[in-house]
């Protein structure tokens, strides 16, 4: 059994997310794998990260790229073997890098042994899921799916099962104590192998308090019956008490539709539930409540939201992109004239905020959205489901194509660009997803040779953060400034820093605080009449 020490190693950690299919392919089958990750561990160590969040590598039919798990205690053969996984954990540990597994426990794959036994009529396993009879000629209730359409599918026997995501992902029944026992056994299995914690997928919707009809709304009818329920809080406390507290874990939850007050309840250290949560409000600054319907991005909205969450939470989990979101330089920056400057700015912003920063694979070289030409080039099941829903809304193909290509999750899933070769150094075979043509200049090899590259800026900024008392443990306070310029302080006992972020294409006049410039994404360090250039990031030291 692992030590019961409660040392919070993760509070000063920098976490790097790996989406295994797209990171590095070692055997030429076009799919990234565990051996490919092992081959890049020294690269990650030199980057300066402390932990890897590993998206699912469990056995899976791959309908939702690993978020449909058919065996939690086995490795998907596409990624390698259990021996490969153990080797990754061991070699990462030797380099001082911890592994955080993705844990998907709202649902399983419909090919999981439990669900297959349930379909075969085994009463024990039927109660692991939600099987219900229809109401008249209709569904058991009016709930909607996150992937579009209804949240129920009919079985061959004529009854229905619940799935808040795709029909290939039936929801687990957490009111059944045997489900708790099964999943906690899985947690111990991986923690005993040496992983350092879990990123818990959509963790705040796992407990359904009832299956009553929901209030009708444009999307996700029924969520009031499963969002942030009391039953969910009780489950998290039991996970913590019976499993997580017995190990030196970091448990971060993906939490949908949370307010700051919701997040406080989920991550308050005294409540002993999650250590930190991912919130999504800043991801929605450019849409009308549904990510597929865009509106113009305004930096002032992003700044206001980040400030709210920085103030609300003790330890926010900070990120600007991940496997479910478009690339941050497309989202919040400028992929044209100011691609490099805005990528560096976003790096500086993420690594200056209070909390635990997460970097997504390829973010450190400024990777951009995929350059897909049509829907047939996509692999993401969510995109296909949304396309069908948009068809039902009678939207013509050209509009559906535009909406989906600018927002599809595949934008962040294109293979990592390691060099400028045909397949970007990702594979010797045919890549599972189209590689962006801008690999010719956006790639690791090229940027390693350029002292002023985005990659080397990340290395420098990470080193700066690790050596800064204020960025490690300091307080946060926003400073008055133009609405589209983010200025805030990080202050500890012995250090005060002023962080400047100009999130616009324009020069911005600002008040200059402090004594000398400590870090900048511009070579010159003069005050320059107190204005910031487009997408300029500066850290100014002030005497205390």
Overview of the molecule:
- This protein has an eight-stranded parallel sheet. A five-stranded antiparallel sheet has the order 14-15-16-20-18.
- It is 28% helix and 15% strand.
- It folds into three domains: 9-106 and 179-368 and 436-462, TIM Barrel, CATH 3.20.20.80; 113-162, Oligo-1,6-glucosidase, domain 2; 475-542, Golgi alpha-mannosidase II (Immunoglobulin-like, Sandwich).
- The chain has 16 helices and 20 strands.
- The protein has helices spanning 34-39, 41-47, 82-94, 113-119, 123-126, 177-192, 230-242, 260-267, 299-312, 328-331, 339-352, 381-392, 397-405, 444-449, 454-466, 469-473, and strands at 15-18, 51-54, 58-59, 71-75, 98-103, 131-132, 152-154, 160-162, 197-200, 250-254, 276-278, 317-318, 356-360, 475-478, 485-491, 496-502, 508-509, 516-520, 531-532, 537-542.
- α11 packs parallel to α15 and α12 packs antiparallel against α13.
- The model is unreliable at 1-5 (pLDDT under 50).
- The protein is α/β, with parallel strands linked by helices and 544 residues long.
Structure at a glance:
With 544 residues, the protein is an alpha/beta fold. Helices cover 28% and strands 15% of the residues.
Which sheet architecture does the biggest sheet show? 8 strands, parallel
Q: State the CATH topology of the largest domain.
A: TIM Barrel
CATH class of the largest domain: Alpha Beta
Number of strands: 20
Segments where pLDDT lies below 50 for 5+ residues? 1-5
So, the CATH homologous superfamily of the largest domain? Answer: Glycosidases
Helix content: 25-40%
Please give the count of helices: 16
Radius of gyration: 23 Å
Beta percentage is 5-15%
């Amino acid at each position: 059994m692992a030590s019961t020490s409660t040392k919070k190693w993760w509070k000063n950690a920098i976490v790097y997310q790996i989406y295994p299919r797209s990171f590095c392919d070692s055997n030429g089958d076009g799919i990234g794998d565990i051996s490919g990750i092992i081959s890049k561990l020294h690269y990650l160590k030199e980057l300066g990260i402390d932990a890897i969040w590993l998206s699912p590598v469990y056995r899976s039919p791959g309908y939702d790229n690993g978020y449909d798990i058919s065996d939690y205690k086995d490795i998907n053969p596409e990624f390698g073997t259990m021996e490969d996984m153990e080797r990754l954990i061991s070699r990462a540990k030797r380099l001082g890098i911890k592994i955080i597994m993705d844990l998907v426990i709202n649902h399983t794959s419909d090919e999981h042994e439990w669900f297959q036994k349930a379909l075969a009529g085994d009463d024990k396993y039927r109660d692991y899921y939600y099987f219900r009879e229809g109401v008249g000629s209709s569904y058991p209730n009016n709930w909607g799916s996150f992937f579009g359409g209804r949240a129920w599918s009919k079985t061959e026997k004529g009854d229905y099962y619940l799935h808040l995501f795709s029909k290939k992902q039936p929801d687990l029944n957490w009111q059944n104590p045997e489900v708790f026992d099964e999943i906690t056994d899985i947690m111990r299995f991986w923690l005993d192998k040496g992983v350092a914690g879990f990123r818990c997928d959509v963790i705040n919707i796992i407990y359904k308090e009832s299956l009553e009809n929901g209030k009708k709304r444009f999307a996700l009818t029924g969520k009031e019956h499963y969002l942030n329920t009391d039953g969910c809080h009780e489950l998290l406390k039991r996970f913590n008490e019976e499993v997580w507290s017995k190990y030196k874990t970091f448990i971060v939850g993906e939490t949908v539709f949370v307010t700051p007050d919701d997040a406080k309840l989920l991550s308050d250290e005294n409540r002993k539930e999650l250590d930190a949560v991912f919130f999504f409000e800043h991801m929605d600054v450019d849409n009308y409540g549904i990510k597929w319907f865009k509106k113009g991005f305004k930096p002032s909205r992003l700044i206001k939201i980040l400030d709210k969450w920085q103030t609300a939470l003790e330890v926010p989990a900070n990120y600007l992109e991940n496997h479910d979101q478009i690339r941050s330089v497309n989202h919040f920056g400028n992929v044209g004239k100011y691609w490099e400057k805005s990528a560096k700015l976003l790096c500086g912003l993420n690594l200056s905020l209070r909390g635990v920063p997460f970097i997504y694979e390829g973010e450190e070289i400024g990777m951009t959205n995929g350059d897909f030409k049509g829907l047939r080039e996509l692999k993401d099941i969510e995109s296909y489901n949304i396309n069908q829903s948009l068809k039902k809304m009678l939207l013509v193909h050209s509009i559906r194509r535009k909406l989906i290509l600018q927002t599809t999750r595949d934008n962040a899933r294109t293979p990592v660009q390691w060099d400028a070769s045909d397949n970007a150094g990702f594979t010797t075979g045919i890549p599972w997803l189209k590689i962006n043509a801008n690999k010719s200049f956006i790639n690791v090899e090229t940027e390693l040779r350029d002292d002023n590259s985005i990659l080397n800026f990340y290395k420098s900024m990470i080193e700066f953060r690790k050596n800064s008392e204020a960025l490690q443990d300091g307080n946060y306070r926003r400073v008055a400034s133009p609405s589209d310029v983010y200025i805030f302080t990080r202050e500890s006992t012995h250090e005060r820093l002023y962080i400047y972020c100009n999130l616009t294409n324009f020069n911005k006049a600002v008040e200059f605080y402090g004594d000398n410039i400590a870090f900048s994404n511009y070579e010159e360090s003069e005050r320059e009449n107190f204005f910031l250039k487009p997408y300029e990031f500066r850290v100014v030291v002030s005497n205390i």
